[in-house]
Specification:
6-stranded parallel beta sheet; 16 helices; 18% strand
């Protein structure tokens, strides 16, 4: 195809597909990338396109084991497809792109664009430049060019939304490469955050999740140690905002004013994700985690005293370099004391570029696997016991989209309780839409979900449900997302279930 042919082809509506790997930050970044592409005239490829699109974007994660091999394997599978499809473009962004830079186009010369975590807003321009110049474009900014929330967004949910309050991280955990890839923490102005939330609520969103690499450190960049608790309380004053969540905090920055704000702000949900990583003081020190077991359990105790029904989840790494059997037993002890509702458990694997990757005392795979299985067994028992305590309770469940894989066969619906537990319940006689709220009584508990097998109680149709319905009724040719940029003020699914914080969040 000549340059002239390509120029004519760009006038035709082109399709795109985005493949997202990693944590909540990447999920939210992909919403921004979708918004940018649709704002530039692209249309989303049908679900399951599997590379059958004019533009395929990989939003990568750098911290999973063999993340680079998986990326190049996926790129390799697209190479023959690109040969057969003139004009097709492939872009690679995210943390692995920030880390590997020129290596990507060396190993996969059929890639058209490589962009980093700091300049996702450049994607449409880079695609066009690659098309016109007929050569790969590699652009990696060293620092944040514009806060991502100033970019247009294609929200995946009509009724629930991520709201980023900061980017980057000031911690130096030895197992995590994220600070090197996303930079030092940068906080948004509180007024800008609240303006975005108010705009979302006006569109019908009723649940938001405040998002940050270290979300409760919010304020360190703007010089206010109580900024996060003030933000939670301000969210409580937004009319129509029914549920507020946040992820992921760090125990170091989890202060009493945050606990008080959670307890005293009605729309802040009784849910907390508090990364433990290890219960051993020795291992925590080697990880450069700035708390110890006693401090961690003290936070859990204070939260439970202030919010008795809070569901607390965590992250745990098993087999960190130098971890002894005694260290692992301390982790099991902490898990038994904390009684987490659930835990994201990981077997330690080397992350290239992190201090831990070159530490002495790397644990044999067989030992790590055995410890991991023991931890999972203990946590499964605790999760089940904690869920059994919910039997007999009456809960308001926000109906979710796509949470219950067996809903069609069981004639049930699924949704999230205020504490974010997954609830499957009997489908009411009347119409219920995602975003609506149904009152149910819990009759059975499994380790990872609850059942309400009796007749559903009250059904409350909501503005969030209206927003979902409006999206369904929209003409198929139009972008299905909520296109939302940050309103300029002053001088300056279903909500996905909490993804495993794969990029070291918290």
């Amino acid at each position: 195809m000549t340059s002239s042919d390509r120029s004519q082809a760009v006038d035709v509506q082109r399709s795109y597909e985005i493949r997202t790997y990693g944590c909540q930050m990447n999920v939210h970044d992909s919403e921004r990338l979708s918004g940018l592409l649709e704002g530039a005239g692209y249309v989303r490829a049908p679900a399951g396109a599997d590379g059958d699109a004019d533009v395929v974007v990989f939003n990568t994660c750098a911290v999973r084991e063999n993340a680079d091999n998986k990326l190049y394997g996926n790129l390799g599978r697209l190479a023959p497809m690109k040969t057969r499809r003139p004009g097709m473009q492939i872009a690679v962004g995210g943390c692995l792109a920030q880390k590997d830079r020129d290596t990507i186009v060396t190993r996969a010369p059929w890639v058209d664009v490589v962009f980093g975590t700091h300049n996702i807003g450049k994607l449409p321009v880079l695609l066009e430049r690659a098309r016109v110049q007929e050569e790969a474009q590699v652009e990696i900014a060293e620092s944040l060019e514009a806060f991502p929330s100033t970019l247009p967004t294609r929200r995946e949910s009509a009724y629930a939304a991520w709201v980023s309050i900061s980017v980057g991280c000031n911690n130096t955990c030895t197992f995590c490469i994220v600070p090197a890839l996303r930079g030092k923490e940068k906080d948004r102005r509180p007024g800008d955050i609240l303006a975005e939330i108010e705009a979302l609520v006006s569109e019908g969103v009723s649940e938001i999740t405040l998002l940050g690499q270290n979300v409760n450190a919010y304020g360190s960049d703007i010089g206010d140690r109580e900024a996060f608790s003030k933000l939670l309380r301000a969210c409580g004053k937004i009319e129509g905002l029914e549920r507020v969540r946040f992820t992921s905090p760090h125990p170091r920055d989890f202060t009493d004013d945050v606990i008080a704000a959670m307890a005293e702000t009605p729309n802040v949900m009784p849910q907390l994700h508090m990364p433990l990583q290890s219960g051993s003081d020795t291992v925590l020190k080697a990880m450069r985690r700035s708390y110890r077991q006693e401090r961690f359990l003290g936070i859990i105790s204070k939260v439970r005293a202030a919010i008795p029904h809070a569901a607390i989840s965590t992250d745990i790494i098993v087999g960190f370099p130098g971890e002894t059997e005694e260290d692992f037993e301390q982790t099991l002890h902490t898990v038994r004391e904390a009684r987490f509702a659930n835990a994201f458990t990981f077997q330690y694997s080397k992350r290239p570029g992190t201090p831990a990757a070159t530490m002495d005392g790397q644990i044999p795979k067989a030992v790590v696997q055995a410890r991991y299985e023991r931890l999972v067994a203990v946590q499964e028992e605790i999760s089940w016991d904690e869920n059994k305590k919910q039997v007999g309770r009456t809960l308001d469940v926000m109906v979710a989209e796509g949470e219950g894989r067996k809903d069609g066969a069981t004639h049930r619906l699924s949704g999230r309780a205020p504490d974010n537990r997954l609830v499957h319940f009997t489908k009411p006689d009347q119409e219920v839409r995602p975003g609506d709220v149904v009152t149910v009584e819990i009759t059975y508990a499994a380790p990872h979900h609850l059942l309400a097998e009796g007749p559903a109680g009250a059904v409350r149709r909501t503005r969030a449900g209206d927003a979902w319905q409006k999206r369904q009724d929209a003409p198929a040719a139009k972008p299905a997302g909520v296109m939302l940029g940050l309103p300029q003020i002053g001088v300056p699914a279903p909500l996905p279930a909490a993804a495993a914080p794969a990029c070291g969040i918290g």
